[in-house]
Amino acid sequence: MSYTLITAWLSLSLITGLPKGPDNKELLKRFYKEVYQEWRMETADELLSPDFVSHDWPDGQKGPAGFRDYYKVFKNAVPDAKYEVKDILADGDRVAVRWVMHASYRDYFPGIDIKPAGQKVTLKGVAIYRIENGKLAERWVVSDLYELLMNLKQEGEN
Prior knowledge:
Distance between the termini: 78 Å
Shape: globular
Strand order of the largest sheet: 1-5-4-3-2
Strand content: 25-35%
Number of helices: 5
CATH class: Alpha Beta
Order of helices and strands: HHHEHEEEEH
Number of strands: 5
Radius of gyration: 19 Å
CATH topology: Nuclear Transport Factor 2, Chain: A
Number of domains: 1
Largest sheet: 5 strands, mixed
């Protein structure tokens, strides 16, 4: 009897000590709502680990300060940007988010040599986050830049 009780307690301890998919999913829902829709950077400061790395950024940018620097340039180029979450899937310490961003292209963005003229843009992508100790630790992003560039060129020619 006591062996069963100890085994059950150990199993429960191991399970509750592991990262939880649903909790991590809620973390990303909050992050996208407060950061990518309301643009509240204090939420990024709170939810990003000090060593947060986005693997699509230039080398050396990391943490909340790197995040703020990147999105300062981003928001300058597309000041009305809003992200819409299409899907969120969580498994252990990983959370995948499929999103669409809508905005107007108002100023140059590094790597895009198309003249800004208020073109309406849509960018679709998927981001995978790794959660560690309740904070966003890493991110991998894949987005449809080809469609974005084609739309910018077409809109700019009209």
